[in-house]
């Protein structure tokens, strides 16, 4: 159980978990007097701190270094990235950007992964890319990034933040979550944020996201559980394709929020602050 989440708040009626996404979009458009599908801006709010400081290893115990002379990491490829299987965090941090990766599975310890991300940021000055396959692994990666963000943004010496860009390997469930270090961003949750569920259509969600980003707005997305988080990441990846001709790239910043449904039952959600940015050349 993750601690130090923000105090419970009630899910606004526009985000009723029993409503399908299409009805949420229609309700939002009606209130705003728009006919385009969409929903929400997302900017700053309470953040929680998490454990995970100190040196950890990626997939192995500390001290098993690729430079030790008795071990050679075996690379595993992903389009644009190579994972040095079994390498230490020091070796991953010292690798070039295409090899600065952490592999994530459904069994990955979220807090340890968050600690690995923070350690690499401290050593290399920039975060790694998380390589995950399947809904459970993607959810673990997103949660770890949320924890790492919470700690990095409150660093007394040099506060920083992380933005994430998702890319899928063709039609498979393998996803690269490319992280970028930035200055702390604002990511408040608002009443018109999307609620994406396990049954949501990621292509419809992607269309709604793209429509709002074309209007220059920030968007917030809430999701809970492996499948819902996976659908959200899928939608964000698809929205990148929808916005290619507009020269808008899509990145997100996840964090945890504690909310109550209409029955008063508290639950933890992942809030995605979605930003549309012009790609760097």
Notes on the protein architecture:
- By secondary structure, this protein is an alpha/beta fold.
- It has helices spanning 21-32, 89-94, 110-124, 135-152, 202-214, 226-242; strands at 9-10, 74-78, 81-85, 101-104, 129-133, 161-168, 174-182, 194-195, 219-223, 249-260, 266-277.
- Strands 1-10-11-9-8 form a five-stranded mixed sheet. The chain has a four-stranded mixed sheet with strand order 4-5-7-6.
Helix content: 25-40%
Weakly predicted, low-confidence segments: 1-21, 34-73
Structural class by sheet pairing and helices: alpha/beta
The helix tally amounts to 6
Amino- and carboxy-terminal Cα gap: 42 Å
Approximate shape: globular
| Fraction in beta strands | 15-25%
Give the tally of β-strands: 11
Biggest sheet features: 5 strands, mixed
**Strand order in the sheet with the most strands:** 1-10-11-9-8
For the CA atoms, what is the radius of gyration? 19 Å
Give the topology string: H per helix, E per strand.
EHEEHEHEHEEEHEHEE
| Chain-averaged pLDDT | 77
